[in-house]
Every structure is written in C-alpha cells, then in structure tokens.
Known about the structure:
Blueprint: H1 2-17, H2 45-79, H3 90-108, E1 116-120, E2 124-127, H4 128-139, H5 143-146, E3 149-150, E4 153-159, E5 162-163, E6 166-167, E7 170-176, E8 179-180, H6 185-197, E9 200-201, E10 205-209, H7 218-262, H8 264-267, H9 275-309
Antiparallel strand pairs: 1-10, 2-7, 2-9, 3-8, 4-7, 5-6
Helix pairs in contact: 1-7, 1-9, 2-3, 2-6, 2-7, 2-9, 3-7, 3-9, 4-6, 6-7, 7-9
Amino acid sequence: MLTHLRTLLVLLFLSVVLSGCPSTPLFGSGATVDPDSCGSYYQTDIGGKIRAFLQATVKLETTLQRSEQNMLKACHVMGDPLGIADSGDLRTDCTAMVAAIRNGLRTGLKPGKKLRVVYKPSVCRIDIDAAAVFVASCEAKTEAQINARCSGVCEGRCEGTQTQGRCDGICHGQCVGDANFDASASCAAKAKVDASAKAVCSEPTFEIVNEPTIVVDKQAIASVSAALTGGLPAIARLGASVEGPITDAYKEWMRASKELAGESGNYFGQLGEQTACVSAQLGAAASALSRIRASISIQVEISASVNASYGATGGTGH
C-alpha cells in the first residue's frame, strides 16, 4: 500500500511533465478532490503537507474554472457586435471572435494601415502578508522564520534595502511579482494558490485613436471598435492574472508534487490506516492536473490572441 501511494505521487508529477498538448478543459469531469475526507491524517507532519497540497489543488482548479467562465463572457461581449454566435465553448467562441476582428480590420482599413491605440496593461498584486501568515502556521514557525520575499516590486514595507521597488529582504504589503518563502513547497503552494485567487489586477486602459483617413468601411471599423472597447480590457486583465499570480502558484504546486514524491519513502508510515484513503485523494489530484494545465494554456493563448488582434493591417490576411 505504501509503495502504491509513493507511485501515485511520482505519477502525479510526471503526468504533467509528460502530457501532450492540452485540449479545451472540461472542469467537473474526473474524480473530485476532497482534502477532508480521510479523517485526521493531517495531524501528522506528512499528512498536513498532503492536505495543504490537496487544498491547493481544489482552489487552483476552481479559480481557473471561474476565470474561464469570465473569459468566455468577455469573448461573448466582444463577439456580439461582430455577429458571432454563442456556442458555449471557450476556444471556439474566442477564436471566432478574434478572426472576425482581424477580418474587420482587413476589410475596413486601407491596405497596410493599422488602428492606432493607447494601451496600458493590467498589473496584478498579491497580499504577501496573508500568504506569509498561512505558511508560518503550516510550517509551525514564526513569520520571521519563513522569510517572505517578493521577486518583483514590493509595495509596502521592506526589511532590507529597496531599489526601484525591489526589496532584498522580507516584504510586507503587496507584491507585484512572485512570492517566495523558506518553507516546504506544499505549504507555499497552498499560500500562493490562495493569494492568486485573491489577487487584485488593475483594469487596463484601451483607447482607439480614430484616424478617419485610413478607414474604407466605417461600419466594419465601428463593429471592431465596439468589440475591442467592450471586452478587450476584461480579457487582458484575466490573462494578466493567469499568466502572473496563477501561473506562479501553479509552478509552486508542481514543485510540491515533486517534493512529496521525492520524500515519500521517509514518512508514509505516518499515515497508518488512512493510507488507502489518502492514496485515492492523490489519485483524484492526479486526474485534475491535465485539466489545470490545459486551462492555463488555453487562457494564456486566448489572451495573447485577443491582445494581438487589433494589430492586424488593412488589405491583408495578417
């Protein structure tokens, strides 16, 4: 049984590393992860880390599911003035909308001309203090011992030298970037997944600077403009969240799966009669990995495609 549990953890890590190209995610399929279904296993050291990992799995999946739903809504807002039908599929609807925007610019602008826009991207911030509180509790240490650091700009108090917003010591407040801790990957993953779910991403600004002399089809450009101003900021903000805090959390979560697999031989005896139940939960987590990876991939892809769509030139297919 212990060998089986160890094998599950190894497969948990390898299933993502070796998986092929992701398809459109179908959240809700597969086994359900329930971190609290195996009694008091979490009262042991390894049990506590496995529980934190399983909790991170649940939160990461639900966060991505909510982001997918919001991105689909934004694509529908953009697709409406372009006459794009709603199929309910994220990839299908967003891809069709982007193609319509590019076609509208191709037919609506003079050959070789582009829309001129003023754009300010979204910036995401996470609460590094809240993350540090959880990590310290998870590790049974003080906050000072887990040494919370921000890899980007520390917006708050820096216990160290701060140069152009970057802190070389412990950061308190908001972090624009990735948070790092002196802690196990399982505890850090749970903290960073929670932080990514609560990340505050600024609303990007997007303004089209009209140049009537380059327009040859006013109706086509009016439809494209309505689509871009109506939904692009929302998709850009969601994309910034997925590419930034959520991806950072996902990477830590992957390190946690590898860490648990690598240390399995040292402490699986702690699980006792809960071993079989915990094994089933890790199997459920393994089944969630492909969905999580696919969701991140498609949302990053769609965000990049939408952000690039307004750069299409008139009179061409590009």
